[in-house]
Design a protein that fits this description.
By secondary structure, this protein is of the alpha/beta class. It is built from 26 helices and 26 strands. Helix 15 (443-452) runs parallel beside helix 16 (500-511), helix 17 packs across helix 18 and helix 22 (653-688) runs antiparallel to helix 25 (764-772).
């Protein structure tokens, strides 16, 4: 362990010293530091705090200084700087901490104090991180002003899934990997780690790679049963359990909560003749009891497990509505004899299932998806797609009777979970459908998530780690999870190291959305030196492309159907090329693709209708999204050039990984900017038959194709030809593989012919210019005092002051229930003040309210509050139920 940590610290110390001069190293070598921690203090002597003190000590020693850990200043002897581990701060909330500069024996000192042991761990690891990324340890601990931080979100979790024996056994069994990885999580202020088994398939059909899929027999020999995973031998099963125990112990030793996620409870696979294992010794009659007893034994064997996450809908292999099965399984949690949280994935959940969990007396959470199975912008979608809305009178039978039927609105959102008086918690889960592989890290987006993740009292968010589904569905390949064809790009010490910056930005901003940027910039300075600032700008702007694309234009809400980084082309011309996506509106073509938030964004064809008509929706249009991509990609490319000129070496693997992934995301942004414009222009042609619109569409689409081809050719030398995240073509392959479908569609667009419609030609020239040019929103300066709370059964009066002369102002409102549709009231003017009241009959409900304003004038329409320039805020107001 010490060797691994020393290698890590020495590498970064060397990077910092390279630009920091010999004098800094000599100063460090002559420094003696003291860490003063009262052994009698209960909080200071807690195991995780002692671990953090060890981290700080090693960080100092790696810099060449000496460091003594003592229980009083008198024992410290001569020192140049001191860290004093202080008393408990009862005025701070849980996990909060303070760092206060001061003096000890007239020497530089900093006092670290906190509300609890975890907060103290954060305080001490913050100091260790400053030392690690600084040139001189004494200077790194010299604070100009006190620092105080507190968490915005109660749960900040990282989930990691075992889905491939080929790719995942290496990290699963690697103890140094776990020590370093878990240390990085807690240093960056995550407070929970979740290890998931059984997520290799969305349903146990056509199963090949089934290792740990039904996890119990891969870990345990349960007394009273003769259940085995054949041909797994006893030695490997025992090694698996011992490894799990080690991971749990190392997690809790650092003050992190450990969550075990069990996503599959089926023990037989459907239509799976090539499965690697078979489960023997179970029958339908013993299935539930075995799971109960296995779970109880597992929880007793690993006492550090603090929560269990369960997929309780049909994809678990258990038919929806099997309440007795789950009631039996939950008894295994009760029999463990301690408090264990039950976290149930929200899809298909109903009140009866919630009640079954509540009967255990354990704390219960429901975990809905955050932006379907992808990563969108940093707010909660104002509406779900029409495809997921409930259908009146529809009844569905079979294993998915709830999630495909009366509860379908919970497939990809929070649905109706936020009811007043609920006895369960809500935890959002962000799936790895948008950013699976490319490096990403935008502080603005992460901060927006930090603000949004406690929406309506939610507990927080769990992020699926980068590379989450690598090798899924039996597609594991040797050679490393990162997928590099150039082996020199593989990070040493574990694949997670590619994403060190991502973990840093997201962890710290989920903890405190207003965190000091130095918390991530110190890493950039020690890594890229003079190239730090432009490297940050390049990745931040490139990282905004795919989440906004996910939000505004989403061919499939399923991560199985759509891989946003390496997407299979959605054809502009219907019938011109195969349509790869099933859950997309009909007719299935690029122009009809729905946004994931259809309340705030318009589709390509909706916008074409607006351009030709006279009824602006105020929604954010594909042309505005295209312009954002063009601007962001331009900033990213310019900053990347500046970074390349300033870093110590362009050949350094860390910078090369950064550069290549930024270039790919820039190319994706430019491709989609042109394709969105081409899509609008083509729909104008489809509706008018105007050849000028056709020519513009073709020219723009050709430019998009050229951008893709250039990017794909460069990526040929970076990533392997088959990047495997699943068994279907849409989940594997390479950017080069996508070119034939683009070419086929482009040829169909070129061949397309539509009859001219003379009556639509008058508005066409302006429409084409707007589709090709820089869009602008009409200015509506507004002032509004948000409504804070309301009383059920009473009207809610809302006012807004609007400068200028809008022709109409409309209040749009809805309960915080995604199963319902938005309502509208035309607001009445009184000078510049507009007023409307949400009816009393509507407020008689258990939900909070949300609302925004639609403003219209002759030149167009806009929304208020709308989005900021980075699409990194909540575009509506919330009103709590009083």
């Amino acid at each position: 362990m010490r060797k691994t940590l020393r290698r890590r610290f020495l590498k970064q110390a060397g990077q910092a010293a390279a630009g920091g001069c010999l004098a800094g190293r000599l100063t460090a070598a002559s420094t003696r530091m003291a860490i003063i921690a009262d052994a009698a203090d209960k909080m200071s002597s807690a195991g995780p705090v002692r671990w953090a003190i060890g981290e700080l000590r090693r960080a100092v020693e790696v810099k060449g200084a000496t460091c003594a850990v003592v229980t009083s200043a008198a024992q410290a002897g001569d020192f140049q700087a001191a860290v004093i581990i202080g008393r408990q701060e009862k005025d701070l909330p849980n996990e909060a901490f303070r760092l206060v500069p001061g003096k000890q024996d007239e020497k530089t000192a900093v006092r670290a104090s906190a509300s609890d042991a975890r907060g103290l761990v954060y305080a001490i690891t913050e100091l260790a991180d400053r030392v690690q990324h600084g040139a001189d340890p004494a200077a790194s601990l010299r604070l100009a002003v006190p620092i105080q931080e507190k968490p915005a979100n109660t749960v900040r979790s990282i989930a990691r899934a075992f889905v491939s024996d080929v790719e995942d056994k290496s990290w699963f069994y690697d103890r140094d990997y776990w020590r370093d990885y878990l240390s990085a999580l807690v240093t960056n202020r995550f407070n929970r780690f979740s290890l998931a088994f059984g997520w290799g398939y969305d349903f146990p059909r056509d199963v090949v790679g089934d290792y740990l899929h039904f996890p119990y027999p891969y870990l345990l020999d349960v007394p009273g049963y003769k259940v085995r995973a054949v041909p797994l031998d006893d030695g490997e099963r025992e090694r698996n359990l011992e490894t799990l125990r080690f991971i749990v112990e190392q997690t809790t030793a650092r003050g992190l909560d450990f969550q075990l996620a069990l996503w599959t409870h089926a023990y037989q696979w459907t239509d799976s003749p090539h499965a690697q294992h078979r489960i023997e010794g179970l029958t339908p009659e013993t299935h539930a009891q075995y799971c109960r007893d296995a779970l109880a034994l597992l929880l007793k064997t690993c006492p550090g497990i603090q929560g269990i996450t369960l997929r309780v809908h049909g994809e678990s292999g258990i038919p929806e509505g099997s309440y007795d099965f789950w009631r039996t399984v939950f008894q295994g949690i009760v029999r463990a004899g301690r408090r264990i949280e039950i976290d149930m994935h929200a899809k298909g959940i109903d009140q009866k299932m919630i009640d079954v969990a509540m009967e255990t007396g354990m704390p219960v959470k429901i975990s809905p998806k955050y932006w379907a199975e992808h990563q969108g912008m940093g707010y909660h979608q104002a509406a779900i797609r029409e495809l997921e809305m409930p259908r009146e009178g529809e009844r569905v039978e079979g294993i998915f009777s709830l999630s495909n039927g009366s509860r379908r609105f919970l497939r990809y959102g929070y649905g109706d979970l936020f009811q007043q008086g609920r006895r369960y918690g809500v935890l959002f889960r962000m799936w790895a459908g948008t950013q699976r592989m490319l490096l990403w890290g935008d502080p603005a987006t992460a901060a927006a998530y930090g603000h949004a993740s406690h929406f309506c009292g939610a507990s927080g968010v769990e992020l699926c780690e980068p590379l989450f589904f690598k090798g899924r569905q039996g597609t594991g390949r040797p050679g490393g999870r990162c997928g590099y064809i150039d082996a020199s790009l593989n990070p040493s010490g574990g694949d997670w190291r590619k994403y060190e910056y991502s973990y840093r930005v997201w962890g710290r901003l989920l903890y405190n959305p207003d965190a000091d940027p130095d918390q991530w910039r110190r890493y950039l300075r020690s890594t890229f030196e003079r190239g730090a600032a432009p490297a940050e700008t390049a990745l931040a702007n490139a990282s905004r492309v795919l989440p906004l694309l996910t939000t505004a234009h989403q061919p499939s809400a399923s991560n199985l159907g759509y891989w946003v980084e390496v997407p299979v082309n959605m054809p502009i011309m219907e019938g011109g090329a195969p349509v790869p996506y099933g859950d997309t509106p009909a007719p299935k073509r690029f122009g009809t693709v729905s946004p994931l938030d259809p309340e705030m964004f318009s589709s390509v064809e909706e916008h074409a209708v607006e351009l030709l008509g006279d009824n602006p929706s105020g929604k954010y249009s594909p042309i505005e999204i295209a312009q954002f991509f063009e601007d962001s990609c331009g900033k990213a490319a310019k900053a990347l050039e500046a970074a390349a000129a300033a870093v110590p070496s362009r050949r350094d693997p860390v910078f090369r990984r950064w550069e290549e992934d930024v270039l790919i995301q820039v190319a994706l942004g430019r491709f989609y900017a042109d394709k969105l414009r081409a899509g609008v222009l083509f729909d104008l042609y489809r509706r008018t038959g105007n050849e000028s619109a056709h020519l513009r569409a073709v020219t723009t689409y050709r430019r998009a194709r050229a951008t893709w081809a250039t990017m794909a050719e460069r990526a040929r030398g970076v990533y392997v030809s088959d990047l495997t995240y699943g068994d279907a073509p849409v989940r594997r392959g390479h950017w080069l593989d996508r070119l034939p479908a683009i070419d086929q569609d482009l040829a169909a667009v070129e061949r397309a012919r539509f009859n001219s419609i003379p009556e639509l030609q008058d508005r066409l020239n302006e429409a084409m210019e707007r589709a090709s040019g820089r869009p602008s929103r009409p200015p509506f300066p507004c002032s509004h005092k948000p409504v804070v709370s309301y009383q059920p059964g009473k009207p809610v009066t809302v006012t807004v002051r609007v400068s200028g002369t809008p022709t109409a102002v409309t209040l749009r409102y809805r309960r915080v229930n995604q199963a319902e549709r938005w309502q509208s009231i035309v607001m009445q003017p009184d000078g510049q003040v507009y007023r409307a009241a949400i009816p009393a009959s509507y407020t008689e409900s258990p939900f909070a309210l949300q609302y925004y304003f639609h403003l219209r004038q002759a030149s167009g329409a806009a929304l208020y509050p709308g989005f900021n320039e980075m699409f990194a805020n909540q575009p509506y107001f919330l009103v709590a139920r009083g």
